[in-house]
Amino acid sequence: MNANITEDEKRERRARPEPGLGQISGGGADDVGEPAAVAPSIPLVLPEWQKSIEATGHLFATALKDVLSLAASTLHDQATFLRNLAHSKTPAELLKCHLDFAEKFWSKSFSEGSKILDHLKPPPSSAVRQAPHDA
């Protein structure tokens, strides 16, 4: 049953405050029967860090999607290449198939690869926001 715990339940468990020292020890003589006030919990992750973590996750998810799309496209091109090789009748046609495939492969690798790397670059607006902190 514990394996079926959802992420929301996990977050709720983490968000619950721990019992204060007064609650554990039973409190002092003045507050018999009343729970001690719980000190405000300190967040484990600062809001700025949380935003950064979420942005990084989104960034890598986008890059992974693009990489997998490139891999699928490349596999399709390879299948087409092999089909063209099978239908080639002369050595000149074989050479042309190899050259066409190499040209498509390198062209697509560079163009799609640069797009993937562009996703990994920080946006220009964040550089502007960071500049005042450096001064």
Q: Profile the largest sheet.
A: none
Number of helices: 5
Radius of gyration: 29 Å
Structural class: mainly alpha
Cα shape: elongated
The proportion of strand residues reads: under 5%
The number of distinct β-strands equals 0
The low-confidence runs, each spanning 5 or more residues with pLDDT under 50, are: 20-29
Can you offer a commentary on this structure?
The protein is mainly alpha-helical and 135 residues long. 71% of the residues lie in helices and 0% in strands. The chain has helices at residues 7-15, 21-25, 47-87, 91-120, 124-134. The longest helix is centred in the middle third of the chain and has 41 residues, at 47-87. It is elongated, with a radius of gyration of 29 Å. The model is unreliable at 20-29 (pLDDT under 50).
Features:
5 helices, mainly alpha, single chain
Concise description?
The chain is mostly helical and 135 residues long. The chain is 71% helix and 0% strand. The model is unreliable at 20-29 (pLDDT under 50).
Detail the topology: elements first, then pairings.
Blueprint: H1 7-15, H2 21-25, H3 47-87, H4 91-120, H5 124-134
Helix pairs in contact: 3-4
